[in-house]
Amino acid sequence: MNTPSLTFSIVVAFSKNERGIGYKGTIPWSVPEDMKFFRTLTKQRKNGEPNKPNVLIMGKNTSRSLPNGGSPLPDRINICVSSTLPETIPLPHLDFFTNGSSSSINEFICINSFSKVLRYLETQQNNIGNIFVIGGEQLYKVAIHYPQCHKIYVNVISFPFRKKIPPFNTGNEDHPPIFDTFFPEINPEEYELVEETPLYPFGEQRNRVVSRFYMRIISQRVDTNNLYV
Ligand SMILES: NC(=O)c1ccc[n+]([C@@H]2O[C@H](COP(=O)([O-])OP(=O)(O)OC[C@H]3O[C@@H](n4cnc5c(N)ncnc54)[C@H](OP(=O)(O)O)[C@@H]3O)[C@@H](O)[C@H]2O)c1
């Protein structure tokens, strides 16, 4: 019997008009509901598999932008993709999460290429839950074209929004928002929008953040083990 092949999701928040995701190495807004959405989505364990932690895959710049001076995000396996950082050798067997000897890993696992990350995770599938690619631009641009990318969760941010870092501005008509990193276009021939809901159900913020959920079009989904070409 074929084991189901590995698949992953992309999670991102981008600005409505520009698909901007970052500025000067940080996320240029502060939207608590967006952060809560990210935490809940990436932390919640697969049904019936409470011992299998989820995996976050990120580029080097995003890993350095994480809170607490670029510390791995808790309760998830953090993988940093970089062609210049030394690789983690040997790559760990992730069964120590499921055999009860440890409940957390406090360091990044560093791997030199994205396809190598997927090959590694394929060998660890019995020990892990859901897999998320969390940015930034360079990694999104590569990951979105892999057939293993089955879902994209996007929070679309409409400006004006609360200013986070000067001189970033909130994007009123006179001062459009500034970005230096962007999410690639989502090709409607590859992904279909299946759900769109406001992240803030009530009040002033209601239409400022919209959660969109895209799925890869069925005929392109991976369901066998013929990966990584
Ligand atoms: N709004 C959001 O949802 C969101 C989410 C995440 C990040 N961001 C923002 O995005 C910005 C960072 O984006 P970015 O494009 O500059 O950086 P990035 O993608 O996080 O990191 C780029 C670096 O990661 C490595 N890398 C990426 N893809 C690779 C691949 N396929 N193979 C090997 N190495 C790879 C390379 O490191 P080496 O040079 O060492 O090879 C590359 O220089 C920040 O402002 C961050 O705050 C926003």
Describe the structure in your own words.
With 229 residues, the protein is of the alpha/beta class. The chain has a single domain (8-220), classed as 3-Layer(aba) Sandwich (Dihydrofolate Reductase, subunit A). Helix content is 17%, strand content 24%. The chain contains 5 helices and 10 strands; from the N terminus they run ββαβααββαβαββββ. The strands form 2 sheets. Strands 5-4-3-6-1-7-10-9 form an 8-stranded mixed β-sheet. A two-stranded antiparallel ribbon has the order 2-8. The radius of gyration is 18 Å and the shape is globular. The two termini are 23 Å apart. It binds NADP nicotinamide-adenine-dinucleotide phosphate.
Radius of gyration: 18 Å
Write out the distinct hetero groups bound to the structure.
Answer: NADP nicotinamide-adenine-dinucleotide phosphate
Judging from the principal axes of the Cα atoms, what is the shape?
Answer: globular
The CATH fourth-level homologous superfamily: Dihydrofolate Reductase, subunit A
Named CATH topology? Dihydrofolate Reductase, subunit A
Mean pLDDT: 85
| CATH class label | Alpha Beta
Main attributes?
229 residues, alpha/beta, Dihydrofolate Reductase, subunit A, eight-stranded mixed β-sheet, two-stranded antiparallel sheet, 5 helices, globular, disordered C terminus, binds NADP nicotinamide-adenine-dinucleotide phosphate
Summarize this structure briefly:
With 229 residues, this protein is an alpha/beta fold. The protein has helices spanning 32-43, 60-64, 67-70, 114-123, 137-143, and strands spanning 8-15, 20-22, 55-59, 77-81, 109-111, 131-133, 149-157, 181-182, 191-198, 209-216. The protein has a single domain (8-220), classed as Dihydrofolate Reductase, subunit A (3-Layer(aba) Sandwich), CATH 3.40.430.10.
